Structures are given as C-alpha cells and as structure tokens.
C-alpha cells in the first residue's frame, strides 16, 4: 500500500491515542520499505530495514502500534516473547521458530487471497455436490417426479437458502492429523505432505446440515483449484519482503549482572537471536527463507535493565530507539471516547445484544480516567489495561442482570453511578495517602 508516513500516522490515530514518536518511527520504517521496493533489484539487495526498539511500560500501546501497522498494509505479522526462548534449561525454544511462524502466517494470507479468487468457481462445484446428494435422497422418496424437474426444484431451493437446515449425508475428505513434535525438535519438513503424496486421500461419510456442508466443501474444492506450490513460493516471498516480527519482553533477556547464573541463559538467547536479526537463511517445511529484509520491532519496559544492557551487536541491529510515555488521565479519557474500537463503544454493542442501551456521561468518563490514573500511580502501572478492570467492575451489575428478555432498558452512566459502583476503589485510594 502506497501511504505517506503522515497518512500512516493518521490511520494509527484512529485506534491508538498519543505516542506520536513511536507512530512516526514505524511510519518512516514502513515508507522506507516501500521506497526500497521501487529500486532496482541490485540496489534493493544492498538495503536492509531499519529495525526499531521501543521502551515503555506495559499497556501504553507498543504491541498495538506494531499490530495495527501490519494490518494496515496487509503484512504478515508475528508476535513472540523473548522469554519463551529461556524456558527450558539454558536453551529454551529454537529461536528460528519465530521465522517459521511468520512463514506460516504469510502462506495462510496468500492462500486466503487465492481462495477468494476462486470462490465463485468453487461455489459452483459446492452447489453441484450438495444438490447431487439431496437429489439422490429425494429420488428414493419421490418416485413420480422427473429427475430434471426434481434437480431444478432442488437447485432453486438451495439458492434461496430454504435447505440450509436440512441434514444430509456427504463424503468429506478426512484431513490428516498434524504430527506433534517435542519442544526443541522443530524441523523444516512437512511430514503430513510426505505421507499425503504417497497415500491416497481418505474420505468419510458425515451427516451435517447443508449450511455446515457448504463451508466444509468450499474449503475442499478451493484447495483443489489452488496451486499449492505457487502459494508456498508467494508466501515465502511475502514473508521475506514484507514480514514484521515483534519481539516483546526483550528487556527480560538483558544481562544486568553479567557472567553467571541466569545471566548466561539471557546472553545466550541474545546471541541466538542476533543472526536472525542480522540476516540469515532459515529452513522451513516450505523451503528456505532469508531474514535480511524482515522488519524487526523489539519492545520492553526496561524497568530494571536498560537498552544498553543488551549485547552491543544486538543493539546495533536496532538503530531506531523510541521511548513511549506513561498515560495520564487525559489520555485515558481519549482512549475511552475517541478510537473506533473504544472500550465504551464495545460495551455499548455487547450489552445492546441483551437490550441494555448504555449512555456514558462525559463527566463520568473523566472520573473513570482519573481513577485509572490514581490506580496506576498507587498500584502496578498497567497502562490502558487498567481501564479494562475498572470498566468490568463498573458495569458488573448491569452485565450480570442483562438477559435480553423484556423491553429494552436505557441506562445512563453518570458520575453518581461511577461513585456508587466504584466506592470500594475510591475509599481504598483515599486511605492510601495516610499510610506511611
């Protein structure tokens, strides 16, 4: 997608409040990737992405910025926690698994695109199979109607949706179950494909509704129309050129003391991640992928450690450093009201299902924002996640009693409502200032 950095920031503003520096950094990195794609192949191979490292407390938008960025441009995106690579002894999980996961996401994205392209053709084949099954059943029940007329009638009813709840018996391909391998034994071989190429595909008879059968057969028929080899090649290409890997909790593998105990494991993980970020070739079950042009975004709170505690080689692979700021009550108020997916709008839609129509008063939301700021100051700083716990407590009684029966209820959430339902938290916050 050809978007200028300013346009990218505007799109991110629709969902994320504040953090202008981080948004500008990722917008520039994304535009940098587009500029590189416009160069000649010779020049393109010489230019690598400018990876980003974000520093900031939990709940301020680090993950959301990266996730929304990938979604904005349709790039394959994977989020991993750096700590998972230290869970088993000194080694932990194979660090190359993050690249394999990215390839899986990219191939799924390509496959979904191909399925959309052949959807009309596949839908015609689905209709034919389902109609044939229904006609065969009806022929045993209705003997005096000509087959052509019976088929036409069935097709008309199928297209009108009148048969969606009808239960029929169909032969469906029996998918081979994936082979689970122990941790640390991840290999770049698709065992399922090896046996699938040798053994004939098994089918089994299943009883299901026409609606369920349509969904199952659509996938089966679409797969027959798609060239899997080209899907895999395009998927690897997409992951190589457009992939984004978000490495969270990177501060947890920084060596503060250095040299002994768990620090050995942490530094070992950094050295394992280093070649992936620098650029190497990783073997996957779909083929080899180069990591040179994948955009890596690392993030961490860095409360105890500092970015400078990472090994110098790894620091050098993240030339762009961004510090995200703590959220205050003004930010919380904007988070509750401005984004397209604001928490208040989500609750209005969810409780609207049970005929509870919520209206949030402006002063009430300002008070909620103030409570969130106070709770983050006196307890652990959870950032915007604090709003989730406060809103759950605030609307607990309404959510419990809403059942969708009877007439719709119009409920106004004003400041008095907040004071009444959040009394315990308000009292606890007030008492803390007297504790030495």
CATH H-level homologous superfamily name of the largest domain: P-loop containing nucleotide triphosphate hydrolases
Q: How do the strands of the widest beta sheet line up side by side?
A: 2-5-8-1-9
For the terminal residues, how far apart are their CA atoms? 56 Å
What is the name of the CATH architecture of the largest domain?
A: 3-Layer(aba) Sandwich
How does the overall form come out from the CA principal axes?
Answer: flat
Strand content: 5-15%
Q: What count of domains describes the coordinates?
A: 3
- CATH classification class of the largest domain: Alpha Beta
Mean pLDDT over all positions: 84
Q: What's the CATH topology label of the largest domain?
A: Rossmann fold
Report the biggest beta sheet as strand number plus sense, adding barrel if it closes.
5 strands, parallel
Helix/strand/pairing class, anyone?
A: alpha/beta
Low-confidence stretches: 88-92, 182-188
From the structure above, extract its key features.
five-stranded parallel β-sheet; two-stranded antiparallel ribbon; Helicase, Ruva Protein, domain 3; Rossmann fold; alpha/beta; 436 residues
What does this structure look like?
- The protein has 436 residues and is α/β, with parallel strands linked by helices.
- It folds into three domains: 5-110 and 239-323, P-loop containing nucleotide triphosphate hydrolases (Rossmann fold, 3-Layer(aba) Sandwich); 119-225, no CATH class; 329-425, Helicase, Ruva Protein, domain 3.
- It has 19 helices and eleven strands.
- The protein has helices at 5-13, 20-37, 41-45, 62-73, 97-117, 119-141, 147-159, 191-198, 210-225, 228-242, 262-278, 312-316, 329-337, 343-352, 362-378, 385-394, 396-401, 415-421, 423-432; strands at 52-55, 77-81, 167-173, 203-209, 244-248, 281-284, 287-290, 295-300, 320-323, 356-360, 409-413.
- The chain has a five-stranded parallel beta sheet with strand order 2-5-8-1-9, sandwiched between helices. A two-stranded antiparallel ribbon has the order 3-4.
- Strand 6 and strand 7 (287-290) form a beta hairpin.
- Helix 1 (5-13) packs across helix 2 and helix 2 (20-37) packs parallel to helix 4 (62-73).
- The termini are far apart.
